[in-house]
Amino acid sequence: MTENAAMRDFLNVSLSLSRFSKNCVLRLTIKKLYFIITEEEAGPRQPLVWCELPVSFYFKEYNMVGVNEDHNEIYLELSTVLLSRSCSILKQDVKSFKIKLTNKESPCLTIEMELIAGELLSRECVHDIPVEVISRKHWGDYAEPKFNDFHVSIQMPNLKSIKNIVEKMKNMSHSLTVKANKNGKLTLQIKTNTVSLSAHFPDLGINSFAGHIPSGYDSEHESASDVSSTIDIKKFIMFLSGMQLNNCHAVCNIVQEKMVKLYMEQPGALLLQIFLTELNI
Question: What is the pTM of this model?
Answer without folding.
Answer: 0.88
